[in-house]
Amino acid sequence: MLTLSQIILVIVVTILSILLIIFSIYIFRILEE
């Protein structure tokens, strides 16, 4: 059973990972111009 703090940690890490991927794709597209 996950505790609330573990759930929050997982959510934060997931959001940060998604933002990092989006940012990387955005930078890559700019560099491709």
TrEMBL record:
It comes from the Bacteria. Keywords: Membrane, Transmembrane, Transmembrane helix. The chain crosses the membrane at residues 6-28. The keyword Transmembrane helix applies. This is Uncharacterized protein.
